């Protein structure tokens, strides 16, 4: 077909594909917390960006049958709740440096009756991670502003061999020590997509 004809019909073909494409609709049990987080951020212009889809970390903790989960970046507790819900036997320890977010997250966690499953640990990741027990977590989820080399090394220490790191917000420009750590094939089996990397601890 001549290229002029191809170019003429391309927009029609793209529109037809878009019309029949049906993204999966996955019910979100914590859509109310995600919405509350958006409202809070709009009102306060803070860094409480709810993760796009809690179903991603939720599916991963369910797939690995996680018992212990550590998260950096609680905001109002959206992904902590999603992970606790998806892995019914698990405890979630979630770290948050903003005292206002700590208070609001505890309120949300209480309202969803998950107080006995989720601990909100106040403070920075840099200060809190080093107090946690090494080799004892099945999943670590980084959803702070952008990971530093120090934080990634601590998350590696905390995971058991075979444990999974979900490293979000890589789009914000992590330094070289982060990208070289996560890309080190002697330490991790890594797959990256969009702004997230999935890294399974090998050693
Ligand atoms: C992207 S939001 C987290 C969103 C949350 N996981 C959710 O899905 O609703 C980032 C949060 O991490 C906190 N934060 C950012 N860097 C941090 C750090 N180094 N240590 C502890 N908390 C941090 C911010 O205060 C903010 O509340």
From TrEMBL:
Keywords: Methyltransferase, S-adenosyl-L-methionine, Transferase. Transmembrane segments: none annotated. Coiled coil: none annotated. SUPFAM superfamilies: S-adenosyl-L-methionine-dependent methyltransferases. The keyword S-adenosyl-L-methionine applies. It comes from the Bacteria. InterPro entries: SAM-dependent_MTases_sf, SAM_O-MeTrfase. The keyword Acetylation does not apply. CDD domains: AdoMet_MTases. Pfam families: Methyltransf_3. This is O-methyltransferase. It comes from Streptomyces graminearus. The lineage of its organism: Bacteria, Bacillati, Actinomycetota, Actinomycetes, Kitasatosporales.
């Amino acid at each position: 077909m001549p290229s002029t004809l191809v170019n003429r019909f391309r927009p029609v073909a793209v529109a037809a594909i878009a019309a029949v494409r049906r993204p999966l609709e996955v019910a979100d049990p914590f859509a109310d917390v995600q919405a509350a987080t958006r409202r809070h951020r709009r009102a306060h212009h803070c860094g409480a960006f709810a993760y796009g889809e809690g179903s991603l970390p939720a599916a991963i903790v369910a797939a690995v049958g996680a018992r212990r989960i550590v998260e950096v970046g609680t905001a109002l507790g959206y992904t902590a709740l999603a992970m606790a819900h998806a892995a019914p036997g698990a405890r979630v320890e979630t770290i948050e440096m903003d005292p206002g977010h700590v208070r609001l997250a505890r309120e949300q966690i209480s309202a969803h009756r998950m107080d006995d499953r989720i601990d909100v640990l106040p403070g920075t990741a840099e200060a809190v991670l080093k107090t946690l027990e090494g080799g004892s977590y099945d999943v670590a989820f980084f959803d702070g502003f952008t990971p530093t080399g120090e934080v990634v090394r601590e998350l590696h220490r905390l995971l058991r061999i075979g444990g999974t790191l979900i490293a979000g917000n890589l789009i914000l420009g992590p330094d070289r020590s982060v990208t070289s750590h996560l890309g080190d094939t002697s330490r991790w089996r890594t797959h990256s997509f969009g702004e997230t990397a999935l890294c399974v601890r090998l050693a």
